[in-house]
Amino acid sequence: MTSRKAVVVILLCAIFTFTSASEITYDGSSLMIDGERKVILSGSIHYPRSTAQMWPSLIHKAKEGGLNAIETYVFWNAHEPSYRQYDFSGNLDLVRFIKTIQDQELYAILRIGPYVCAEWNYGGFPVWLHNMPNITLRTNNEVFKNEMQNFTTLIVNMMKDEKLFASQGGPIILAQIENEYGNIMWEYGEEGKAYVKWCAELAQSYSINIPWIMCQQDDAPEPMINTCNGFYCDQFTPNRNNSPKMWTENWSGWYKGWGDPSPHRPAEDLAFAVARFFQYGGSLTNYYMYHGGTNFGHTSGGPYITTSYDYDAPLDEYGNLNQPKWGHLKELHEVLISVEKTLLNGERIDTDYGNMMSASVYSYQGKSVCFLGNANTSDAFTVEFENTNYTVPAWSVTILPDCFTEAYNTAKVNSQTSIMVKKPNGADNAEEPSNLKWVWKNEDIEEIKNGIVTGSDLTTNTLLDQKAVTNDTSDYLWYMTSIVVDEKDSLVGKTVTLQVHTSGHILHAFFNSKHIGSKLAQNGHYDFVLEEDVPLNVGTNQLVLLSATVGLPNYGANFDKTPNGILGPVKLIDPGTNNTKDISSNQWIYKVGLQGQILEFYSPQKLNESEWSYEELPTNKMFVWYKTTFENPVGDDPVVVDLLGLGKGEAWVNGKSIGRYWPSYVSGKDGCASACYFNQSYKAENCKTGCGEPSMQWYHIPREFLNSDDNVLVLFEEVGGTPSLVNIGTITVGKVCANVFEGSTLKLSCQGGKVFSEIKFANFGETEGSCGSFRQGRCGSTNSLSVIEQACLGKESCSIPVTETVLGPTGCHSNIYRLAVEAVC
Fold this sequence. Notes:
With 825 residues, the chain is an alpha+beta fold. It has 4 domains: 40-322, Glycosidases (TIM Barrel, Alpha-Beta Barrel); 420-443 and 598-730, Jelly Rolls, CATH 2.60.120; 446-592, Jelly Rolls; 742-824, Jelly Rolls (Sandwich), CATH 2.60.120.740. It has 14 helices and 47 strands. It has an 8-stranded parallel β-barrel with strand order 7-8-9-10-11-12-13-15, surrounded by 4 helices. α6 links the parallel β10 (172-177) and β11. It is globular, with a radius of gyration of 29 Å.
């Protein structure tokens, strides 16, 4: 039995303009807002992974999907990229984001951290932290704690000044300090425990009068509330009886790495996890992610995490409804909110039927709500409950809001499935793309290859970690040295092997002004050796090495100490005699970044100042900048650019980076199943698509980045490719399918003002096959097609009651009738 002794967090009477302060309390059952227990259905939307123009639409779609709260991390390195130099502009305007949530009358959950993980570069820490003397991150270290306190205080005061905490009349009902520290605390020993205690004391010192949470922290000090992260949290128990059961990261899918196929989490399994959580006493769940978005610039971490952070979330990378996941969860949310009072105030009685089948009954003030949960992965289970038989499919939960009527089953999807299509940008959005006209310019590396460097950043007699030199201002760092050989040297005149040990991700090597080889890390092993044969001449030989990163580590104990860059040894080896010349202690000259980055070749203000060539376009050439212009696609569908044919690099539109691209990195051919089954405990490798295809082909261009007329696309090509296949397009709903149970109401919709132009299939009765290959089974109504055509053709959306009265007769008797539809937008 759950304790009902409330822990009072605040008691405020102050009234602010237009809104009043809220009293936030909690006990072992739930959060309470002004004394009323609340089911909190939240979704993660990270403000830097979209744009300010997108925020109202994303948050509105979340609200339409049944959420009542939005959660976000706060990204320290985005806001303080350089020491005490802050940026809260554009899509980093945290205050504007929280106020946008407030405008939609939703709650907000602010996970300050300020370590975030989040597959974000360096876990959200500014790299300049790493370079501070005597610092150790995420432990009881005074240098780190001073910096963490400075930034956390900045954020808290910013929210206070804008009156955004619930205690001031704002939307923020929960705040988080640290993040998933319990997973790695063992590495820091007693100093780690002291650090957790300090974090809790720091949080309480701010007196913001709302609860603070610590996720994945079993020993969270009182009054911190410890919470669960994972694919399933139904078996999670808080560390104190007076703390509610809360799920801060309900993983709606998974992230993708370069070289990986696309992971998917079935809607049925995600709904099952949520329903089980509430069946067993849960009160708050937060989908991580509800909208994943895009890793613009070089914000993706990992390393080797893609620019897309789609996460198979209910809203896709571009902000479209990911159907059926969005719709299936919307129905679940509506049911949970409808039983909120009974669920959170009622006494629970559980019954175990064996074979992974259980029932939970919540009763309060003469009302009851029942959950029938079947965690068996293969067998349906029929249970007699309240004198009625209910058959619960395998791996599903049935919810009976009145303990009699089945309102929802997690395995029965009654929402449409949207098949998204990419339409090339051209005249009237034609099927054939318009030809882009390209100009180009070489990245000027001749001076660097010859070892003559003006304005170099540093000269030392040792090899330095890349983070220490670049401070994360660029993915690229040049290491340059001279090798002087006299006639008496045993290696003179020989072809020797250059051996470079690196902890970088990609290495390009030049010897005496010639490119001699490149190599990249494979299969997650970010330490490798490049070996190339070079002719060693009498006199001065120039060795130039370019180390490139693809995101810095973001997770794990001491992740910040992971070496990066060329740390050596660097050797010249005579293969005949094994005589070795170690040049690791040579004088090394360092140069950060590309010349084109320094001169801002991508900037609209600088484009006309550079000499771009209109001559024959080079292809499969390293270190080339390409530029073209394109028209703004008509309509309001999301805009993308297809970069198939290019190798690896970065792309800018009108001076704004849309992220790293790498379409030449193709995923392995194995690991993708022919069908995706939901009735099993989910793992990221369970359900993948796109094997043998580029990890990313299409890259998001937010409409906020676009001009009303001509737009400029600039690409930096690092490894070689061709821009001739590049085209601009839009993403929209192309085809809609549904296979809906009798008794439901089917709602179908296109998007972007498009309407249904054709109903390719409709059958009410028994249908075989799947979307794209539906066929009538044993029986079906002859009226189905005409009813659907009349309801939907020429309309952007339509609604159809799935009943025999509307769609029948079927001409046969069946226990389960379904309506199957395939329509074209």
